[in-house]
Specification:
Layout lengths: L23 E5 L2 E5 L13 H17 L5 H5 L1
Antiparallel strand pairs: 1-2
Length: about 80
């Protein structure tokens, strides 16, 4: 029996040379979650776009990794 493996490579790029990339990529077996972090443009912002991307990506990954939850339900 032969098993195939998929290698995932990412190359995030910030929207501005002065701001870190706030996009997030999360993976689990058979699953890839990509979230656009919407670059933070406000000086002194309390919550950065990457924070929202981290939380959303983590929640989707957790729900979508559960075999008892339909992917459409996880995304909703």
């Amino acid at each position: 029996m032969r098993s195939s493996t998929l290698k995932i490579t990412t190359a995030p790029r910030a929207g501005s040379p002065h701001v870190a990339c706030e996009d997030r990529v999360r993976t689990a077996p058979g699953l890839v979650v990509v979230v656009d972090g919407v670059t933070t443009v406000a000086d002194g912002a309390e919550v950065l776009g990457g924070t929202y991307a981290d939380v959303l990506g983590g929640e989707v990954l957790t729900l979508a990794s559960d075999p008892h939850i339909d992917l459409r339900t996880a995304l909703a």
